[in-house]
Amino acid sequence: MFLNVFNRKSPEQPNQNVPVDRHEPKTAGPRIGLAFGGGAARGWAHIGVLRVLEKAGIRPDVIAGTSMGALAGGAWAANRLDQLEDFARSMTKRRMFGFLDWRIGGNGLISGGRLAKLLELNFGESMIEDLPVKYAAIATELSSGHEIWLTRGNLIQSMRASYALPGIFTPIKLGGRWLADGALVNPIPVSAARALGARVVIAVNLHSDVFGKGTVIQGSGPAVEPEEAPLPAPATKPRHLFGNIFGLPRRRVQTPSDGPRGISTVMMDAFNITQDRISRSRLAGDPPDVMISPRLNGIGLFEFYRAEEAIKAGEEAAERALADIAEAVAALSA
After folding, report:
1. From the CA atom positions of the chain, what is the Rg in Å?
2. Residues carrying an active site annotation
3. What predicted TM-score, i.e. pTM, was given to this entire model?
């Protein structure tokens, strides 16, 4: 069922999403690189960004992606973006649940095998060396913390390693290394795009509106809270003990309404905060020439069924950035 959805066509709109011939000669100008950041379900926004760039005639020479950024960038490079978009737009809560091959014990809640088989059926044995653009999927070596740039070998395995979120997806072993999500070390890989030869780097930050600018709260400490009259039992709010990580139906578990959130929600908040702080630090030292920041604060990390909203947000953000891109290209063409 899912394979048919992933391969479905849109005959009623034959002129939409026309494949791009990346081998055709390009006009003289600086080499353009895309640095696609991670963000789980928010990563569908990369599809919208790519559509707007294609429509504007902006074709990258280099793509460096982390996590979902590696998946979207790899799909474009392998000329499979149409299939990925069809799959994303067809996703529902029920279909998403069908891809979750749960594991008890082991090193990840989800093995990722079902999704990997789907990717293999649609990407085949695509090799990074055969792509018409330079490509790098960013991953993290678990034993050393090294940042690994996957620039050769099997495309699907490289993408899987890049989006293997620790504790959720099983790590991937490549080249004798156990690899996990690249967002642990380089959430928005501007540095990789430059190292691969990009002169103009366009970065996409999927977390720009999640935490705002951040700040330091000084002089904080415990405070004496006023005593409150005990509430009757019905006043407690049913909540899910483990959060609602995948946006699926919740079991009703009685916990205090002002108590700590479920473990999965705490894990995701911690990962978001870490990724946000690492992004700021790395971007301060090596900023992109143009930053595209889709407004995705309302979309949860695992709400993959909200692809239409995320893609639209990516389109709107890319359209707002077109003038800046043109200015950067013109400046570096002189």
Report:
1. 21
2. 67, 181
3. 0.78
